[in-house]
Amino acid sequence: MTPPAVPSAADLRTALSRPLPGLAAQLVMAPSPRPGGSRTYQEAAGCSLKAGVLLLLYPKDGKVHLVFIRRPSSALHHKDQIAFPGGQFEPGEDAVRAALREAREEVGVPPGDVETAGTLTPLYVPASNFCIFPIVGRAGAAPAFVPFAPEVAEIIEVPLARILDPAAKRRETWTIERGPVLIPFYSYGGHRIWGATAMILAEFLAVLAGGVAFPADPY
């Protein structure tokens, strides 16, 4: 599957308004064993930290892209990991406001340039006690990304077709603090997209597979 152009916001909204694949899709890319097992957001009564993240679709070089960031080694949570732009809710914010504000702060995307289309299933992350609320949006043109150095070590623009390629999905056993863990990840350009980001991405790809139109050229 090689989508030639960004789907319309209407098509994305329609897809995201259907029953979501949810935890079952997320767990396909979960480390094994996963701390907290299959505990869901609804079950995470102790989740005191909430974050909004943005899955931003945009056209570049004739292909649909998604933007990711690499967290710096100095980050408080998920250091050196690949993530979607996003961060913790500020007082009075909901997931959409938090995700758009963080996208502006971290990678320089003005909120007015993003057309939000809906939300994915919230994901509870036992390791950090965060609940992550993924927001899906689109931009009509490739943004001029500007990384905020204290929070972003690298901006990574990934063609969606590369993630949809079955060869991108891999598994390795890594030895981490709690011992050997089987880690599923998406591979792109030497980067490994794993953990919560891979779990969110897995549900998003399942939504796309459930039926989203990719028009030939809407621009």
Brief summary:
Strands 1, 2, 3, 4, 5, 6, 7 and 8 form an eight-stranded mixed β-sheet that branches. Strands 9-10-11 form a three-stranded antiparallel β-sheet. It is built from five helices and eleven strands; from the N terminus they run ααββββαββββαβββα.
What does this protein structure show overall?
This protein has 219 residues and is of the alpha+beta class. Helix content is 21%, strand content 32%. It is built from 5 helices and 11 strands. Strands 1, 2, 3, 4, 5, 6, 7 and 8 form an 8-stranded mixed β-sheet that branches. The protein has a 3-stranded antiparallel β-sheet with strand order 9-10-11. It starts with 8 loop residues before the first helix and ends in a 10-residue tail after the last helix.
Topology:
Layout: H1 9-17, H2 23-27, E1 49-60, E2 63-70, E3 82-83, E4 86-88, H3 95-107, E5 115-119, E6 123-125, E7 130-138, E8 154-159, H4 160-164, E9 169-176, E10 179-188, E11 191-194, H5 195-209
Which labels suit this protein?
219 residues, alpha+beta, disordered C terminus
Q: Can you count the beta strands? A: 11
The main sheet comes to: 8 strands, mixed
Elements, N to C (H/E): HHEEEEHEEEEHEEEH
**Rg (C-alpha, Å):** 16 Å
- Hey, roughly how much beta strand do the residues contain? 25-35%
Overall shape: it is globular
- What is the end-to-end distance? 21 Å
Tally of helical segments = 5
Uncertain segments:
213-219
Structural class: alpha+beta
Helical residue percent band: 10-25%
Average pLDDT figure: 87
